[in-house]
C-alpha cells in the first residue's frame, strides 16, 4: 500500500503489520492525497501544484493536467497509465500516458464541464474504463485500446440513483457469468447507500452455451461421453488431464487455440479418476470401470504398467508426496495401497 503525504514523501506500508518498509523522498511539490497507483515495479502519481505527472522509482516527470484541482491516476497496462483531471478551462479530461515516453500524452479525451473530481476504474479483463465524478449521478464507460490512435471509445453511460461519492468493482468471481455479466460497479452514494451497477453483454444463447470470451478460458472438447474427473499438471499449469466414460483420457493445453495435446487410450471401460505423479512430470495414473489402474507415459501415450488386482471399480486414487506409493479406494469399499 502506498500513501502520499504533504511533506513530499511516498510511504509504503505492510498492511497486516502496519509497519513502514520504504520511504521515497521526492523533489516535487506537495502531492495530493487521493490519486496514487502502483504496479509491482512502478509507482505513478500526479503533483497537485505544478501539474506534473511522475512514474517509476527512477522518477521521470512531464506536464500533466493544467487545471487547479486534483487529478486521479490508474494503471491500464504494464507500461501505460491513465490520469483524470482538469484542463486550463477547468473542463474535466482523461489523458493516457506511456511511461517510456512521457514527453507527450498518448491520447486525450474531454469529458465535460463538471466540477467534481473524477474517479477512474479500469477493468483489465474487458478493457473497460469506468469513470464517475464526485457529486455526479452519471457513470461513464469507455472501451480503452492503448494501441489505437483513438484510444477512448465512449459506450452507453449508466445512471446512479443519487450523487456519487465513491466507486469500486466487484471481484469477477462474484459476477453472474451465466447471465453474461462482465463487470459490476459498486457506487457509494450520498447518504451512505451502495448501489450496484451491472454491465452485461447480451447473448442470445447465453442460457445454454458457455461464453468463452467472458469465462476467461477455452472450451476443452473431444470426449464422446461425460467427463468424470480432471486434474491440472503440478509442474505445467496449462496442462489439464480429463477422464471420461468413453474410456479415454485426454491431455489438453488450455492456453493454445487448439488445446488438444494427446489422448491416452487403453481402458476397455469408462475412466473414473486420474492423478499426475508429484515428481515425475510425464507420469499419470488412472482408474477405470474395467477394474484396473494404469500408469501412463504422457509424452509417448503408452501405458507403462497395469495393476489389475481390483474386485471392483477404483473410484479415486492419490500418490503420496514422494510418488512412491499410490492409494486407491474402490466401489466395494476396499482401500488399497
Going by CATH, the architecture of the largest domain would be 7 Propeller
**CATH topology call of the largest domain:** Methylamine Dehydrogenase, Chain H
- Determine the CATH superfamily of the largest domain: YVTN repeat-like/Quinoprotein amine dehydrogenase
> How many structurally independent domains?
2
Return residue spans where pLDDT drops below 50 for at least 5 consecutive residues. Answer: 5-15, 27-35
Roughly how much helix do the residues carry, as a percent range? Answer: under 10%
Large-scale geometry: elongated
Mean pLDDT: 80
Tell me the name of the CATH class of the largest domain: Mainly Beta
Most strands sheet = 5 strands, antiparallel
Number of strands: 30
In brief, what are we looking at here?
This protein has 337 residues and is mostly beta strands. It has one helix at 212-215, and strands at 2-4, 9-14, 19-25, 37-38, 43-46, 52-55, 60-63, 72-77, 80-86, 92-98, 107-112, 118-123, 128-133, 138-144, 152-154, 158-159, 164-169, 181-189, 194-200, 227-232, 239-244, 248-253, 260-265, 271-276, 283-288, 293-297, 302-307, 314-319, 326-330, 335-336.
Present the secondary structure layout.
Blueprint: E1 2-4, E2 9-14, E3 19-25, E4 37-38, E5 43-46, E6 52-55, E7 60-63, E8 72-77, E9 80-86, E10 92-98, E11 107-112, E12 118-123, E13 128-133, E14 138-144, E15 152-154, E16 158-159, E17 164-169, E18 181-189, E19 194-200, H1 212-215, E20 227-232, E21 239-244, E22 248-253, E23 260-265, E24 271-276, E25 283-288, E26 293-297, E27 302-307, E28 314-319, E29 326-330, E30 335-336
Antiparallel strand pairs: 1-2, 2-3, 4-5, 5-6, 6-7, 8-9, 9-10, 10-11, 12-13, 13-14, 14-15, 14-16, 17-18, 18-19, 20-21, 21-22, 22-23, 24-25, 25-26, 26-27, 28-29, 29-30
Amino acid at each position: 500500500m502506498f500513501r502520499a503525504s504533504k511533506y513530499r514523501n511516498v510511504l509504503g506500508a505492510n498492511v497486516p503489520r502496519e509497519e513502514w518498509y520504504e520511504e521515497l523522498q521526492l523533489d516535487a511539490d506537495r502531492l495530493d492525497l487521493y490519486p496514487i497507483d502502483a504496479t509491482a515495479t512502478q509507482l505513478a502519481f500526479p503533483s497537485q501544484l505544478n501539474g506534473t505527472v511522475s512514474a517509476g522509482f527512477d522518477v521521470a516527470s512531464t506536464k500533466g493536467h493544467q487545471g487547479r484541482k486534483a487529478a486521479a491516476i490508474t494503471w491500464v497496462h504494464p507500461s501505460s497509465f491513465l490520469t483524470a483531471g482538469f484542463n486550463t478551462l477547468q473542463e474535466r479530461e482523461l489523458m493516457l500516458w506511456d511511461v517510456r515516453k512521457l514527453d507527450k500524452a498518448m491520447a486525450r479525451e474531454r469529458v465535460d464541464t463538471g466540477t467534481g473530481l473524477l474517479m477512474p476504474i479500469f477493468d483489465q479483463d474487458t478493457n473497460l474504463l469506468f469513470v464517475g465524478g464526485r457529486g455526479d449521478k452519471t457513470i461513464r464507460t469507455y472501451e480503452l485500446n492503448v494501441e489505437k490512435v483513438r484510444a477512448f471509445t465512449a459506450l452507453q453511460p449508466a445512471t446512479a440513483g443519487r450523487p456519487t461519492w465513491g466507486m469500486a468493482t466487484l471481484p469477477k468471481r462474484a459476477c453472474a457469468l451465466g447471465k453474461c455479466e462482465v463487470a459490476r460497479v459498486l457506487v457509494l452514494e450520498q447518504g451512505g447507500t451502495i448501489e450496484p451497477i451491472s454491465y452485461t453483454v447480451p447473448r442470445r444463447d447465453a442460457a445454454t452455451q458457455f461464453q468463452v470470451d467472458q469465462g476467461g478460458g477455452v472450451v476443452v472438447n473431444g470426449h464422446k461421453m461425460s467427463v468424470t474427473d480432471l486434474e491440472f499438471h503440478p509442474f505445467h499449469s496449462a496442462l489439464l488431464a480429463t477422464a471420461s466414460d468413453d474410456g479415454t483420457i485426454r491431455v489438453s493445453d488450455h492456453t493454445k487455440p487448439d488445446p488438444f495435446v494427446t489422448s491416452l487410450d487403453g481402458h476397455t471401460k469408462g475412466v473414473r479418476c486420474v492423478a499426475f505423479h508429484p515428481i515425475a512430470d510425464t507420469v499419470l495414473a488412472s482408474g477405470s470401470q474395467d477394474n484396473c489402474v494404469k500408469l501412463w507415459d504422457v509424452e509417448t501415450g503408452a501405458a507403462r504398467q497395469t495393476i489389475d488386482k481390483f474386485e471392483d471399480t477404483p473410484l479415486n486414487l492419490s500418490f503420496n508426496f514422494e510418488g512412491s506409493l499410490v492409494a486407491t479406494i474402490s466401489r466395494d469399499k476396499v482401500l488399497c495401497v
